[in-house]
Amino acid sequence: MSLNSTIRQIGQALFFPQSCVVCHHWVLNPDFSPLCRNCLLSLKPLGQRICYYCGIPLPGDLLEVHGICSQCRDGPKTYDFARAYGAYQGSLRLVIRKFKFEGRQRLAYPLAALLETCYRGRGLNLKAHWIVPVPLYSRRRRERGFDQTLLLGHVLCQKLKVPVFGGLRRVRPTAPQSGLDLRQRQENVYDAFLLDQAELLSRRNILLVDDVMTTGTTVSEISRLLRTKSTVHKIMVLTLARVPLLYTQL
Ligand SMILES: [Zn+2]
Ligand SMILES: [Zn+2]
Fold first, then answer.
1. Of the residues 27, 42, 57, which one is the last residue of a structural domain?
2. Are both 57 and 2 inside the same structural domain?
3. Mapping DSSP to helix (H, G, I), strand (E, B) and coil, where does residue 152 land?
4. Pair 158, 200 in one domain
5. Residues 130 and 199 reside in one and the same domain
6. What is the CATH number of the domain that holds 162?
7. What would the pLDDT profile of 127-146 be if each residue is shown by its tens digit?
8. Phi, psi of 95 (to 5 degrees)
């Protein structure tokens, strides 16, 4: 650690003391984020037993037989594959909620590090050309004060040296997807996005970034739009966390 960095950290500790959002211990980080190293290391990644396409964790017996979940067997995906760092539960869920809903924007640094780990470890050798964050609707962004996925995208851009594409917009408000069934989710996001500068994506590999993935309806809709408006090559969906589904839904 450089002298400058040490002095900055001491200054931060003196003037802006903060505690870890998980363990509440006093914390000092090079990126000034309120998440201590121990708690960051405790955020466990998903295991190897996941659906090849959508990345949902699968019970071992299902994996050995098929390797893909029933939803992916039912029809082709508009994206090529999806990967999430961990399960949307426990400490990871808590950190994401602190980031999104309590304005702890500095958490973008450790969270983007998780995205980088997932991309490098499970990117299936995809060389991404564009990071495309799933955008908030403008009014929601104003209410929240920032767009969490855009912020994640920009930090990830610094780590991967891959540019952020700014031509995707959410053009109407959508209800929260939680609590809706699959059909309602599809109707909720249908035609909710608009793509500008589509020609920039032509024959490029896309890293579609979101914070949490449940059924994947939103990213499927965006992927459909990307494929309709442009001749994108591969689309990889990259998220922080996957909502675990009941095995009866697989
Ligand atoms: Zn901690
Ligand atoms: Zn699947």
1. 42
2. no
3. helix
4. yes
5. yes
6. 3.40.50
7. 999 999 999 888 888 988 88
8. -65, -40
Query: Alpha-carbon distance 165 to 232, whole Å?
Result: 13
Closest ligand to residue 25's CA: 1
The pLDDT of residue 45:
95
Boundary-marking domain end, from 9, 24, 42:
42
Q: What share of residues in the chain are helix, strand, coil (percent, to 5)?
A: 45, 15, 40
Tens of pLDDT along 212-233? 998 889 999 999 999 999 999 9
Domain encompassing residue 119: 45-249
Going from the Cα of 22 to the center of ligand 1, the distance in angstroms, rounded, reads: 5
Tokens of 95: 């950190």
Angstrom distance (rounded) from CA 154 to CA 195: 19
Let me know: does 214 contact 178? Beta carbons within 8 Å: yes
Q: How remote is the CA of residue 69 from the centroid of ligand 2, in Å? A: 4
Q: How many Å apart are CA 189 and CA 140, to the nearest integer?
A: 15
Q: Which ligand has an atom closest to residue 18 CA? A: 1
